[in-house]
Amino acid sequence: MTGPAELRCMLMRGGTSKGAYFLAGDLPADPADRDALLLRVMGSPDPRQIDGLGGAHPLTSKVAVVSRSADADADVDYLFLQVGVDRSEVSDRQNCGNLLAGVGPFAVERGMVAAGPHETSVRIRMVNSGDRATATFPTPGGRVDYTGDAEISGVPGAAAAVVVEFPPGERALLPTGHVRDTVAGTEVTCVDNGMPTVLIPADALGVTGYETPQELEADGRLAARLHDIRLAAGELMGLGDVATATVPKLTLLAPPRYGGAVTTRTFIPVRCHTSIGVLGAASVAAGIRIDGSVAAGIGAPPADGDRLRIEHPTGFTDIESSLGRTADDCPLSRRTAVVRTARKIFDGTVFPRSATTAPLPAPTPGGHR
């Protein structure tokens, strides 16, 4: 099956990412056919994604698939798909908290949820993990309003605030059952507060944690260490063989420089994030609050209140996070909330690349690329 020659699509910025949003009914029901179509829509595999919607980076090669939910406790279901840039891969093994910020507005735009006269709350079930969130955003006069004065680091200008709140957790935050694990010779803390994340002291890997993403990506020795840690941690966290997966994320921790709780550099999984994902930040916030984690002596969570500021390469993300304990005295999340923004960029028809298009020939020496 080649899939439709054209289909309805909305391109949105959600948080610090950008992606194509689709109604599930507009895509092939078979996952293999769906994924093949989305590769052609995004222009993959190609480092520039020159023949599709993708922006040549994992943060701009994302897809949200939204449908009405059969769950009485949710309004819509949201399936996140990470589309490979230079590889023919489509992964559903993780959530994306950034595109999550656009799901509520998209659901209202498509008539799946009725808008309130002033603001609207949309209950969302994240299909990838079964987790839930409620997104609240302005809808004056019953229409989504993307204008506002909320600013988030990594995004120029301001837009309407989208408050995303996650319900209290029911599962322990430590998937390995330990506050600290030694993985590939490095002491780490493995946390899952919506995103499987491995917290690593930056100095344990011979870096400061203040380097730019480009500097870190160019460090071949660091890349090899991170590769070994990720493979071993994936097994310990119950994720199996993660060699071709996009989780767990790896976050390097360093002391804060600008009044926040901690400085971060996050790998997704090979490229270094220019900021930090929402769910990754939620896992970091929970992790640095856990007594005895590797963040001890590095992070500086506030003594009062739930809000923490997570510093990252292009600024900061504020997360409200509080913890409790399970019946067997393991840490769990009580509350997590974050203020994000989202914006509709275009709504229309996308024309996927032909399924019979031959791959481009390799460039000749000295030729134009």
UniProtKB/TrEMBL annotation:
SUPFAM superfamilies: Diaminopimelate epimerase-like. Keywords: Isomerase. Pfam families: PrpF (PF04303). It comes from the Bacteria. Coiled coil: none annotated. The keyword Nuclease does not apply. The keyword Ligase does not apply. Its EC number is 5.3.2.8. GO terms for molecular function: isomerase activity. Belongs to the PrpF family. NCBIfam families: OMA_tautomer. This is 4-oxalomesaconate tautomerase.
